[in-house]
Design brief:
mainly beta; 6-stranded antiparallel sheet; about 240 residues
Length: about 240
């Protein structure tokens, strides 16, 4: 960049110049000089008033009124932070005693999630297709977080406490068992959600998932899918 020298004014007879210039003025300069530093080599710690405390991915450098600090960006309550889903496409059968809940969740129909804050909630959505032996009878599903049953009603006498239930009309029929529940686990530890089953028969009977009890191969003996979906919701 060229520099235009100042001109004009009256020069005294003794040759002195009555004009004054800033100390940065150089009468012989024809370029602007500057020190340069690559921007990608600047360290945040060299900035005045910056506090860097173990930053992690997706944090922002923000000014809190006193200092510049690294922090996670604010997320409005109710925002969905992550989604996890599992779909069971195969059939499953389990023998369950009368008046009992199956001893374990259905294999292949579990979903795992790790909340990012203890104040966040987990929205659980379950859709299952099931049938039972000795129809007409009722089949029940019970939602679990790890080893804890959730999405259940208050106790009332000897009544079963289940998340969902339906009456199977005959051996060629299936029923849809649907559960939606907003869980508040208050943890940042990994969680596993799954479903156990029960029935209304007076003796040990089979519960069948994604298929009818008869399942002889005709068109009416349709096969189905069951899903479990988890969504972490900002608290």
């Amino acid at each position: 960049m060229a520099v235009t020298r100042l001109s004009g004014g009256t020069t005294p007879a003794n040759g002195s110049d009555p004009r004054t210039f800033p100390t940065i003025w150089n009468a012989t300069a024809d370029v602007i000089e500057a020190n340069e530093t690559a921007i990608d080599s600047l360290a945040l710690t060299s900035l005045s008033g910056v506090s860097i405390t173990s930053p992690v991915d997706n944090q922002l450098l923000t000014y809190n009124g006193t200092n510049w600090v690294n922090e996670a960006p604010a997320v409005p309550a109710g925002s969905v932070l992550q989604v996890v889903s599992t779909t069971l496409t195969s059939g499953y059968t389990e023998s369950i005693a009368s008046g009992a809940v199956s001893s374990a969740v259905v294999p292949g129909l579990t979903a795992s999630i790790t909340p990012t804050a203890t104040s966040n909630k987990i929205f659980v959505s379950v859709v299952i297709h099931a049938s039972g032996e000795d129809a007409p009878s009722s089949v029940f599903s019970l939602l679990y977080r790890d080893s804890t049953a959730i999405a259940i009603t208050n106790a009332l006498g000897s009544r079963a406490r289940m998340s969902a239930g339906a009456r199977v009309s005959d051996n060629n029929a299936t029923v849809g068992l649907s559960t939606q529940f907003l869980d508040e686990p208050s943890t940042t530890s990994p969680l596993v959600y799954g479903v156990r089953f029960a029935h209304s028969n007076s003796s040990t009977s089979l519960i069948k998932i994604n298929r009818a009890n008869s399942d002889v191969g005709s068109f009416s003996d349709a096969r189905y899918v069951s899903t479990i979906t988890l969504m972490e919701v900002a608290g």
